[in-house]
Specification:
By secondary structure, this protein is mainly alpha-helical. The protein is about 75% helix and about 0% strand. It has 24 helices and no strands. The relative contact order is 0.15.
Length: about 525
């Protein structure tokens, strides 16, 4: 699932208290994750509401109303309906690199404020939409907000928090996204009972609550010391650091922040650096994790859960209720990840989840292949329950593995000189493939029918093999020691780092340290 950010938890432990300003700032900033999750969850719910379909997608509405006129799997196959979902991520993709620039030049706080304004405008357009163009315009504005928030919020959280809780906050941002999805599912369940147009308008309009909280929070909080120092405001950065750490003993941390800023400014061409041979392992793994994360099929389920359950023969209320259940499982399993990731390690969670997701998707495919034909009646209660249970097993596996770890692992493996470029590439790949799945899923469901779950199962098998052979364990390995302790010892990736880069660095304008082989 989309979300996450880069923490880079490789600093020394400095004296710091968890002050009220830290707690308030993190709560305010985290509403960016809630907003993102709400936008993910709300689209599938309103897309299953008859009044919404009748107003914006009358062809789909007629296909559903006329029993037997279309295959069960094809009732929702409509490019406009898929564009309603995918436009959010296409817009996010378009603004990602600009958002990276504003995060660096204007600061984290101002970038979050920009995100909040985009969110508010998008919610307004969607809740008041009178035609499809206005609806899509609102989704594009929301996508721009997500693009800015995804860049600024994780960085803000990681920089303002004491280092001892920084890693947990990385996954907590993912938890906020899952809470947003659950909130959207609950809202959809209750607003579906409202007669006429007001149900879907309330669902889309309630996204204004986290949007207003993010905007208000961005207005009230201070920018991070890292951002202030990076932009040359050293004295102000020192004042803010003293304020958020709750101690006067801040000189060691302040000096390290100044040094880190100086080192970062030496990197003139981070995107050129990231293409160097010695950065190949990090780049390949980060891109692969983002691609594989989407081809688990998770976003197809989270975007379209109510639509999917309707396709399988559930009544409308039952479909929305089932989506609430999967949303709750998503939240609980993400909490499991927070407590297990540093105990069990990344590889064990990814490989265990691969087996769990593969088996659950296979069972779903077999049940649907036997019981849900093109124009069959509803699933029996027993089989319907089995499908919901298998979806929950699948979602739980994803939520404690590929969901948070798809973001956490890239944050641990990029060195300082390419971290900003690595973040932008990772986010862009995520947005790109999220939008591809969002735009294609309902058409794929119509074409593949129950085979869509065999399709995703095949990808899960491929990505599990990739993890087994090519993703090293990074648990408890400091970033500055990653080359020596991970890449140089890996059976495959060591060939990319066991070379002498002295000559390359002589002409690189100081863009990163040399990697020497003893």
């Amino acid at each position: 699932m989309t979300g996450g950010g880069f923490t880079g938890d490789n600093t020394k432990e400095f004296e710091a208290k968890i002050t009220p300003i830290i707690i308030i700032s993190c709560m305010m900033a985290a509403t960016g994750g809630l907003m993102f999750g709400y936008d993910v969850g709300v689209s599938g719910g309103v897309a299953s509401m008859p009044p919404f379909l009748e107003k914006f997608f009358p062809k789909v509405y007629r296909q559903i109303a006329e029993e037997g006129s279309e295959s069960n799997y094809c009732k929702y196959d409509n490019q406009g309906l898929q564009l309603f979902t995918s436009s959010l991520y296409l817009a996010g993709l378009m603004v990602t690199f600009f958002a990276s620039y504003t995060t660096r030049v204007l600061g984290r706080r101002l970038t979050m404020l920009i995100a909040g304004f985009f969110f508010i405008a998008g919610v307004g357009f969607n809740a008041a939409a009178q035609n499809l163009a206005m609806l899509i315009c609102g989704r594009i504005l929301l996508g721009c907000g997500i693009g800015f928030a995804n860049q600024a919020v994780p960085v803000f959280l990681s920089e303002i928090a004491p280092s001892r809780i920084r890693g947990a906050l990385n996954i907590l941002f993912q938890l906020d996204i899952t809470l947003g999805i659950l909130f959207a599912n609950l809202v959809n369940y209750f607003t579906n009972k409202i007669k006429g147009e007001w149900g879907w308008r309330v669902s889309l309009g309630l996204g204004g609550i986290p949007a207003l909280l993010l905007t208000l929070g961005a207005y009230l909080v201070v920018d991070t010391p890292n951002s202030l120092i990076e932009r040359g405001h050293l004295e102000q950065g020192k004042i803010v650091l003293r304020k958020i750490r709750g101690t006067d003993n801040i000189d060691p941390e302040f000096l390290e922040l100044v040094e880190a800023s100086h080192v970062a400014k030496q990197v003139k061409h981070p995107f050129r650096n990231i293409l160097k041979r010695n950065n190949r392992p990090q780049l390949v793994i980060s891109i692969a994790l983002m691609v594989f994360q989407q081809f688990t099929g998770i976003n197809a389920i989270m975007f379209y859960a109510p639509v999917l359950f309707n396709t399988l023969g559930f009544k409308n209320d039952a479909a929305l209720y089932s989506a609430v259940i999967t949303g709750a499982i998503n939240v609980i399993s993400t909490i499991v990840s927070i407590y297990s990731v540093d105990k069990l390690g990344r590889r064990k969670l990814l490989l265990e989840a691969g087996v769990q997701m593969f088996l659950s998707q296979m069972v779903i495919a077999v049940v649907l292949g036997i019981k849900v034909k093109d124009n069959s009646e509803e699933l029996s209660k027993g089989y319907a329950t089995l499908v919901v249970v298998m979806v929950c097993i699948f979602v739980s596996a994803f939520a404690w593995s590929w969901g948070p770890l798809g973001w956490l692992i890239p944050s641990e493996i990029f060195p300082l000189e390419t971290r900003s470029a690595g973040q932008s590439v990772t986010v862009c790949v995520n947005f790109l493939f999220t939008s591809v799945i969002a735009q294609a899923f309902l058409s794929m469901l119509c074409y593949f029918k129950y085979g869509i779950f065999f399709f995703f199962s095949g990808w899960i098998l491929i990505m599990s093999i990739f993890v087994f052979f090519l993703v090293p364990e990074t648990k408890n390995v400091p970033i500055e020691e990653m080359t020596q302790r991970v890449w140089k010892k890996h059976w495959f990736w060591k060939r990319f780092v066991e070379v002498d880069f002295v000559e390359d660095d002589k002409v690189s304008d100081g863009n990163g340290p040399s990697i020497m082989v003893p």
